[in-house]
Amino acid sequence: MRTLISTAFVSLDGVMEAPGGEPGYRNSGWTVDLVDFLPEAYEIKGREQGEAAALLLGRVSYEAFSPVWPDMEEFPEYRKMPKYVVSTTLTEDDLVTNWGETTILRSLDEVAALKETEGGPIIVHGSAALNRSLSDAGLIDRYHLLVFPLLLGAGKRLFSDTDKDAQKLRLVEHEAYANGIQKNVFDVVR
């Protein structure tokens, strides 16, 4: 069984929307505009590329990342690994051709089936709605969170407000950086 890892930049109040400057959002660019850059705080991002065997995205994040990430020097490992997009509306014609093998999954059941296949970890970037659905369905095994010392108020949040049983997490790695960012890696306790 493969491990499904959710990785996110998140404000202290749980907002994950538009961290890098995506246009049209109230607090767009909050990770770069409001907190000093320290390379060591982002070490986990390079490690994720080396450890992941596949990339899972929701439609909105796929449409945002696919025109940019294939040509970015910062993401060389993602070019060659298989990608999966969870969407009920995308078609094969909507997929970019310069980013390697991409498969459209139509449901959370298909994500659950993917987790049952052989292979290494599957990492989820961005994808707020998908993250909430995966979490609510009990499909996420680990969280890699870079928590920023900000209260953003508005924006899409990493976790849903669904009325459900408590989910216990085990902190397996953590570090605080001089700029106030905290790295928290949690395994989901089953």
UniProtKB/TrEMBL annotation:
GO terms for molecular function: 5-amino-6-(5-phosphoribosylamino)uracil reductase activity. It comes from the Bacteria. It holds the Pfam family RibD_C. Residues 2-182 form the Bacterial bifunctional deaminase-reductase C-terminal domain. One of its GO terms (biological process) is riboflavin biosynthetic process. This is Dihydrofolate reductase family protein. It comes from Streptomyces tendae.
